[in-house]
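Entry for the shared binder. Reason: the reviewer on the internal report wants the predicted structure included alongside the sequence.
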Amino acid sequence: MIIEFVSSSGLVLDHKRFDATTIKIGRAYDNDLIVHDPHVDALHLKLSYDSEREGFWYEDLNSVNGTQLFRSKENRHRKVPANFVCSGDTLCVGKTRLKIRSREQDVPAAVKISAWDKFLTLCGNIWFVAIQCILLIALETYSLFIGDPRPDKLGSKFLEAIDVLFLIIAYSLVWAFIARVQKSEPRLLVHASLICSYLLLVSFIDLVKPIFYFNFQLVHFSAFIEWVLDSALLFLIIWSSLYLATELKKVLRFLMAALLPFGFLLSLVVNVIQRPEFRSTPNYDSLVVAPRWQWREGIDRDSYITNTAELYQEVDAEPGLELENEALKVDVELVAPLQEPEENVEESN
């Protein structure tokens, strides 16, 4: 028989092989399988192989915490006694999980390494991470310099851009720690490469989005577009880190990766609901674009005046505005007599 030490998620941590048909399991050193778990008795249980049934019988030896049996999906439909263990079932002794295997059990075929895994392995090269960090610092420095284009401040902008390295290191260390807890490979450089790629894309999008907003007239949809892009990138980066550091199922991994994007969606909805009557839109930064990046053609002066006049007439013709205009005229008539000419004021002085 083969006994595997597995985690709560089913990850195999270690395994032992036994030729005997009956073994004793416990914390004492005279057992066939020694379990270093303070919640396990010195002599916890006995496990015996049944060749006729092609399974195992387990007997709990009056342990303090008992022994729990968890059936595998393949064995749940089988009608067997309560203390009979089929190959693939798991016994929980204390806080340790032992999966029982038979030598005759079929082993599934090897899974081919996917293109995604190969790509992540490539991202773990130190030269790739270094190039990404250099590009990110240069891009951040350029973005800061555009906001305050003074050559004497370029050094301070560079030092400010270097702060992004601390974010990269912190993100990588957190996921490497999670991977260690899950008994997986830390892959520190891969996580660093992922967060670098995310920050590079975000910085590049911040630089080019005014060009697209201006030329494709998407200014009024800027908030929605930015949410879609940020959420998609954030979901991808968290999903990749979860894929590398944990053994979670696909559905659970998807739900956890979608938590932050869903939070952004809620904040966007709240801002739309609670937005004030006056909104400073469209964004000024989305309207100011250098002439060399203006792809759509402009209009001449006469056309601009004609379009503006038509727009003013449409707004002025809306119901409810006539009363406001009359009120403004009354205010002007009341205030005008109070404003004496400057010559009369000097004479009175």
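Summary line for the report: Residues 119-273 form one domain.
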